[in-house]
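Because discrete structure vocabularies remain unfamiliar, we reproduce here a specimen of the format, pairing a chain with its fold in token form:
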Amino acid sequence: METLTHLTISSQLAIPLSDIDMQAVRSQGAGGQNVNKVATAIHLRFDINASSLPEQYKEKLLQLQDSRISSEGIIIIKAQRYNSQLKNKDDALNRLRDLIRSVLIPRKTRTPTRPTRSSQLRRLESKALQSRRKSLRSKIDEQ
């Protein structure tokens, strides 16, 4: 999982925990007696540009259209799923790890295809049928 000093992303890549800023804050929503006293939620902030990630990972992360990545290139993750601060900390680190791993997976390029002749005919027939239905719904002119 994770060592004391690094967050392991893959066998070749690890991020020092000094690159990751974590703050304990109070959780939102229902939580019983401790909700107003104990700061169990974790705000994780990870600056992509200032991190020790290789440049290719930084570029791919900055290109992601993800709501967790701010316009300044900072990943913000709020973990408040559990009632334990330690579990929320692990959850936030796991979510950061998953986000970084997602850019490691090469995307499949779409191979453009053409519609078959029969599918084109089916489409045109359904359009003609719909047109006939709608024309039958119109008012009849009496002369």
Remarks:
- DSSP finds three helices and five strands in the chain.
- The longest helix spans residues 117-137.
- Residues 119 and 138 are 29 Å apart (CA to CA).
